[in-house]
Amino acid sequence: MTTICVDAMGGDERPEVVLEGIARALEADSDLEVLVAGNEEVVQPFCASHTKARALVTTEVIGMGEHPAEAVRTKTDSSIVRACEAVRAGEADGFFSAGSTGAMLVASTLKVGRIKGVKRPAIAVAFPAAAGREKVVLDLGANADCRPEVIVQFARMGAAYAHVALGIENARVALLSNGSEDTKGSETVIAYHEALAAADCGFVGNCEGNDLLMGDFDVIVCDGFTGNIALKTIEGTAKYLIGRLRNAANESKRYLLGAGLLKPAVKDIAKDLSGDAHGGAILLGLKAPVLIGHGATSATAVMNGTLATAAAVRNGLVERIAAYIAS
Predict the structure, then answer these.
(1) Entry pTM
(2) How far apart are CA 61 and CA 158, in angstroms?
(3) For residue 123, with 0-12 CB atoms within 10 Å meaning exposed, 13-18 middle and 19 or more buried, which class applies?
(4) How confident is the model at residue 270 (pLDDT cuts 50, 70, 90)?
(5) How many domains are there within the chain?
(6) Whether residue 256 is found in the same domain as residue 163
């Protein structure tokens, strides 16, 4: 039986949305048990009605706008901190939350701990790509500044995640830059390129911003500053296009007819870009799988995030990353 801790208090939605996602995950996976972290009035009734759910009663919640390190230090009975401690104690095999990304990063690094040899954990997401393929992109915000050797570790961790989550063997790793030539990029990016080229990590060269969704690569690495800007740009572009389509449909009957015909395709595109299929982002480099959902998460995303965390445990993600780092 695989036990995943889920934060019932995390995210912008009501706890009932998270609980619905947990219930759906339990229905979908007969070998899954969930440790539900949250306020007593939220978790106890739910766990009483679900045989494979156990309550982890907490009394505090870390808000999205709180300073991550300060909140983790002072709110020791929060759902995020207690959940990470439960993973460290072996009460759960992994952790999923749609709560504060910063607090998740701080608490999981301190409480769950890093794999031996990992210098910094990284936030990774499986991006949709052309022809139905997917690729892993990291780091998306955990580390604004990185040394070249850290980027090499990101490449290896990304390759391990691509193997476990996407079934990709011998991943083709690229470095995000402003040109595909080896000499393109800032002094920092050129140093990253040199380190990746000298390492045995599947590196095939630089890629550009348009390759995030279209390029023929399996893993794209960058520092967290660049990655977070790229991620927010893609999210903002998607929202802009969908908003423009809605406005156009409201302004013209002809556009409304066309929008009706395109609606299924637009919904599929929005679903691909939302990250709901994989439950959100994963923190790579920790001693247990930790996934972070979107703040405005859905029951489907919670279900998928819980199932994805369990899959990472069963597929030996941590062990594979440890082997890649050791090599």
Answers:
(1) 0.89
(2) 31
(3) buried
(4) low
(5) 2
(6) yes
Q: In DSSP terms, which residues pair with 292 in a beta bridge?
A: 97, 281
Residue 7, H or E segment: strand 2-7
Contacts for 117 with CB less than 8 Å, ≥ 6 apart: 322, 325, 326
SS3 sequence of 271-296: HHHHCHHHCCEEEECECCCEEECCCC
The answer to whether residues 230 and 258 belong to one domain is yes
Instruction: Please name the amino acid found at residue 147.
Output: R
CATH number of the domain at 262, please.
3.40.718.10
Separation of alpha carbons 138 and 242, rounded Å: 26
What are 291's strand-pairing partners? Answer: 96, 282
Q: Residue 59 is which amino acid?
A: T
Tell me the pLDDT tens digit for each residue of 116-157. 999 999 999 988 777 667 899 999 999 999 999 999 999 999
Angle subtended by helix axes 253-274 and 224-251, to nearest 10: 160
Q: Are 160 and 324 in contact (CB under 8 A)?
A: yes
Please state, as a whole number, how many other Cβ atoms lie within 10 Å of the Cβ of residue 44. 14
* pLDDT tens column, 181-217: 888 889 999 999 999 999 999 999 999 998 988 878 9
Contact criterion met (CB below 8 Å) for 298 and 17: yes
Residue range(s) defining the domain that contains residue 33: 1-118+285-316
φ/ψ (deg, to 5) at 39: -60, 150
The DSSP letter of residue 78 is B
Token pair of 141 as six digits: 């915000």
Q: What's the DSSP call for residue 146?
A: -
Instruction: Tell me which amino acid residue 98 is.
Output: A
Tokens of 133: 């393929």
Please answer whether residues 9 and 293 qualify as being in contact, where contact means their C-beta atoms are separated by less than 8 angstroms: no
In a domain, 321, yes or no: no
Residue that the structure tokens 């299924």 belong to: 264
Q: Is there a domain that residue 37 lies in?
A: yes
Are 253 and 124 part of one and the same domain? yes
Q: Is the domain of 136 the same as that of 195?
A: yes
